[in-house]
Structures are given as C-alpha cells and as structure tokens.
From TrEMBL:
It comes from the Eukaryota. It holds the Pfam family Abhydrolase_1. This is CCR4-NOT transcription complex subunit 1. Residues 48-146 form the AB hydrolase-1 domain. It comes from Platysternon megacephalum (big-headed turtle). InterPro entries: AB_hydrolase_1 (IPR000073), AB_hydrolase_fold (IPR029058). GO terms for molecular function: epoxide hydrolase activity.
C-alpha cells in the first residue's frame, strides 16, 4: 500500500468530510498549511482539522455509503490516475491530429479550483461537436452541489443532440 493510500484510508470519514465540500463560505475552512507545505510535511490532509464539520453535500447515509465502498476498494485505483499522468500526457500528445467526432458536452464550474474552466480552452479543436455549459457558483463537485442546474444543462443538450441527429425519431408516449 502506498503512502497516499495510508493517509487517505486512515479515517475515511475525515477524508471525505475534508475533500467533498461545497463552496459555501460556512462549508469552507482554510488548512493551517498551504498544499505544497502539507505535501512536504507528510500528506495532503496535513494541517486540516482532525474532526472537520459535516459536509452539506456528502453527509448521513451518502457519506456512509462512500465509506463502505472505499473500505472495500480503497484509494489505489483512483490514485493510479495521478500516478499515470506522464503516460496519459504522452498518449494525449500521440492523439494530436485525431478528432472526437461524436457530440460531447463539457460543463465547467466557476469555483472549481481543481479543474478550472480555463483548462478546457481549445477542446473544440479536438471535439468539433462540443457544446459547453457553465455553472458559475459551483465548485468541483458539480452533480452534488448544483444538481438541478447541471440536469437543466444536460437535458437541454440531450434534446438538442436528439433533435439534430439523423436517428429515427420515436414519438413520445
């Protein structure tokens, strides 16, 4: 087991209450150390509260579900994405002249500090049929923070793609 797994799996409730939070002011807390110092001091959760307040977007039965699932599977597979960044980058470079030729939707969130909307600039070059949606007052956990706004964007996109497709239309019942 890796160092990251040990830290994140030590107290799953704490890990999820720290990492899955809304952008609301009352839900935010500042770590006592900047991320770069936390990592050099021993982990991503260093300097975070030992007993963080409940998250408004992942609490109760939902939090318990996450805990039970991660007790079974752990963080190894999700962390492997980050461990494989160099190979993913190389693969991406090898695909520079290829295009994704199916309709696609990219929904960005204005307060997402992990996947900032600027990081998606240029996607249209690879995905000619890209449609964009944006939710300004939302953080990284878009489906949990702004489910209604996200569903509105998804439904409109699906309706537009369906109306513009050459598929045979099936009448509504």
């Amino acid at each position: 087991m890796g160092v990251a797994e040990l830290e994140l799996e030590k107290d799953l409730s704490r890990t999820f209450r720290i990492m899955i939070r809304s952008i609301r002011k009352e839900q935010m807390f500042s770590p006592s150390l900047p991320l770069s110092l936390s990592l050099s001091a021993g982990g991503i959760l260093v300097g975070m509260p030992e007993d963080p307040p409940p998250s408004q977007i992942l609490a109760g039965a939902d939090l318990q579900y996450f805990i039970e699932q991660f007790k079974k599977s752990g963080f190894r597979r999700p962390l492997n994405w980050y461990r494989n960044m160099r190979a993913n980058w190389q693969w991406g470079l090898s695909a520079k002249d290829r295009k994704i030729l199916v309709p696609a939707l990219m929904v960005t969130a204005g307060k997402d500090f992990v996947l900032h909307p600027n990081l998606s600039k240029g996607m249209e070059e690879w995905i000619p049929q890209l449609t964009r949606g944006h939710i300004e007052e939302c953080g990284h956990w878009t489906p949990m923070e702004r489910a209604a706004a996200l569903n509105k964007i998804l439904i409109k996109w699906l309706e537009d793609v369906h109306d513009n497709s050459s598929l045979q239309k099936i009448p509504k019942l």
